[in-house]
């Protein structure tokens, strides 16, 4: 996407750069001070999978992708380096392991030092998470009652037990967003967002709990004063170091000293980019639909929802509490689901030739010829999907849950692949509805859903989510609200905005509302939701 030629060129320091590292790619977005996107670029990143539910990435590869995306976005916008006045980073909550000076250390049996990131979706630490949960430490109250194998302390314990030499040699263990902040500025500060949500830091008390680390077998980290996981913890948007180092600036194509704000996890950046738009973060759930899905609920007082992560203080909207649910596989679950269909390989070849991803193509086919987008639900025919291919993140906090597909026939054609796709999106939406209901029962209701993420960009998907949950879906004026969330960090670090709350209100806007259908469509979703709950329950019972 490039700059609108009808707008005047921004002056020095007026442009904010947001960098978003998702599971599949690094993206860079340039925004003006009003939050309008001027240009963006994307660069894919490498990912390795290995037996034992291991998924790894490379910090070097990711940094290079960040630099390439940034340079491309700048070139697309035709902007000089000095136009950029502030930079923000968001990233998946993956664990980066580096030795002295930042040299990558291998995290798995490949022994390849390039593979120095345990990706958030890596489930190698399920046994460690279960052991930690059995010990029932008080800090677990602040992660939804159960630690997830996707969080960092079970992963650290896995490293200490299975790779003790690497654990001992590690100079720093970073969440990916904090790694990027350090790589850009040399500042080792961690963001309250990352350490509170994934490392058991208690932001509401401004402290780590040494007793937790000692109890679970990571006491050495406490003995060192938490120097390897975060001796200094700062609010997102806090300026890091002296801004970009000379080396990082040269690599990114920016000016040395450009202010950089402490970062955010990617889902939280989606929240920052959306829920401030109407000044009502407590009414609006941020729903980030990408490779995974995240449900981000803002409350004034802490709300304890069993099976939903949190409550976390100031992890997203400053001064407010956050509950985070979602599904570990969402976009990834739809990819997995459709790949099983006999027509999938041929359809994927055809769509590749068109330069379109298969799920996007299927979504377009599903919506084809419909006068009313809500009718799309009828195209699921008799198919029902509980898309828990990577467990149930919320509200059951059950990494062992698995997917269910019901209603399959002998069909092998493209229309039946489209039906399977629609049934899959319905399944994602019913998982969201189930989380909304669990939160409502616990005292954290929301009125509307503010959507972001690559899988939530099409009208059809947004309308289906509204219809299946019964809540209006709000869409941002910018195509990439996650990138806007990161750019907001840059605006605060640059001093353009006094704080995150002011920046959210000034820079984000809602452009469209998708109202839920009533009547026959609502009744259809009620019936399908009942089937979803029954199938989910049957699968749980079948596992014993
Ligand atoms: N129309 C769609 N329907 C379903 N899934 C989609 C659609 N468009 C994109 N996706 C999925 O969204 C995911 C990418 O979303 P994105 O937010 O860009 O990813 P991430 O930040 O996780 O790298 C992929 O799993 C992709 O298949
Ligand atoms: O756990 C998460 C946020 O807390 C996310 O699921 C994780 O960071 C992956 O994000 P994405 O699906 O956008 O790649």
Written overview of the protein:
There is one protein chain. This protein is of the alpha+beta class and 544 residues long. It folds into 2 domains: 15-277 and 477-508, ATPase, nucleotide binding domain (Nucleotidyltransferase, domain 5, 2-Layer Sandwich); 331-475 and 512-543, Methane Monooxygenase Hydroxylase, Chain G, domain 1. Helix content is 38%, strand content 19%. The protein is built from 18 helices and 21 strands. The strands form 5 sheets. Strands 15-16-14-13-19-20-21 form a 7-stranded mixed beta sheet, sandwiched between helices. A 5-stranded mixed beta sheet has the order 3-2-1-6-12, sandwiched between helices. A hairpin with a 7-residue loop joins β15 and β16 (321-327). α11 runs antiparallel to α14 (414-442), α13 packs across α14 (414-442) and α14 crosses α18 (519-543). The longest helix is centred in the last third of the chain and has 29 residues, at 414-442. Bound molecules: adenosine-5'-diphosphate and ribulose-5-phosphate (5RP).
How is this structure best summarized?
Keywords: Kinase, Transferase. By secondary structure, the protein is an alpha+beta fold.
């Amino acid at each position: 996407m490039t700059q609108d030629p009808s707008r005047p060129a921004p002056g020095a320091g007026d442009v904010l750069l947001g960098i978003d590292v998702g599971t599949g790619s690094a993206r860079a977005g340039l925004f003006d001070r009003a939050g309008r996107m001027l240009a963006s670029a994307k660069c894919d990143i490498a990912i390795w999978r290995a037996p034992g539910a291991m998924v790894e990435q490379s910090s070097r590869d990711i940094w290079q992708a960040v630099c390439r995306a940034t340079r491309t976005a700048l070139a697309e916008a035709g902007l000089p380096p000095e136009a950029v006045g502030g930079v923000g980073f968001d990233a998946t909550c993956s664990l980066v392991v580096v030795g002295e000076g930042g040299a990558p250390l291998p995290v798995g049996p490949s022994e390849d030092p390039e593979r120095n990131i345990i990706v958030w979706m890596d489930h190698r630490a399920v046994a460690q998470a279960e052991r930690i949960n059995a010990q029932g430490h008080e800090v677990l109250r602040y992660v939804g009652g159960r630690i997830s194998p996707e969080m960092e302390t079970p992963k650290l314990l896995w490293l200490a037990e299975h790779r003790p030499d690497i654990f001992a040699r590690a100079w720093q263990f970073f969440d990916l967003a904090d790694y990027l902040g350090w790589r850009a500025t040399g500042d080792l500060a961690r963001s309250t967002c990352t350490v509170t949500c994934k490392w058991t830091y208690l932001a509401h008390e401004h402290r780590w709990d040494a007793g937790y680390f000692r109890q679970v077998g990571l006491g050495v980290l406490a003995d060192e004063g938490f120097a390897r996981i975060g001796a200094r913890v700062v609010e997102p948007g806090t300026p890091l170091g002296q801004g970009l180092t000379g080396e990082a600036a040269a690599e990114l194509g920016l000016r040395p000293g450009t202010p950089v704000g402490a970062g955010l996890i990617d889902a939280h950046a989606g929240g920052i980019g959306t829920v401030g738009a109407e000044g009502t973060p407590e009414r609006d759930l941020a729903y980030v639909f990408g490779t995974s899905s995240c449900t981000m609920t803002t409350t004034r007082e802490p709300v304890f929802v069993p099976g939903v992560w949190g409550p976390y203080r100031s992890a997203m909207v400053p001064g407010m509490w956050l509950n985070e649910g979602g599904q570990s596989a969402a976009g990834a679950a739809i990819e997995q689901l459709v790949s099983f269909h006999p027509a999938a390989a041929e359809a994927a070849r055809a769509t590749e030739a068109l330069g379109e991803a298969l799920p996007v193509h299927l979504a377009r086919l599903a919506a084809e010829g419909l006068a009313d987008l809500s009718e799309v639900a009828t195209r699921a025919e008799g198919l029902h999907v509980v898309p828990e291919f990577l467990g149930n993140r919320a509200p059951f906090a059950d990494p062992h849950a698995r997917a269910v597909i019901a209603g399959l026939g002998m069909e092998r054609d493209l229309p039946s692949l489209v039906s399977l796709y629609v049934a899959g999106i319905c399944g994602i939406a019913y998982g969201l509805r189930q989380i909304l209901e669990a939160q409502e029962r616990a005292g954290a209701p929301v009125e509307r859903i503010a959507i972001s993420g690559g899988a939530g960009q099409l009208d059809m998907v947004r309308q289906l989510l509204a219809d299946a949950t019964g809540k209006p879906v709000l869409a941002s004026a910018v195509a990439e609200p996650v990138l806007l969330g990161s750019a907001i960090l840059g605006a605060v670090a640059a001093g353009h905005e006094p704080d995150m709350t002011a920046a959210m209100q000034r820079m984000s806007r809602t452009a469209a509302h998708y109202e839920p259908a009533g009547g026959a469509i609502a009744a259809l979703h009620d019936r399908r939701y009942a089937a979803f709950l029954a199938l989910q329950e049957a699968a749980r019972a079948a596992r014993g």
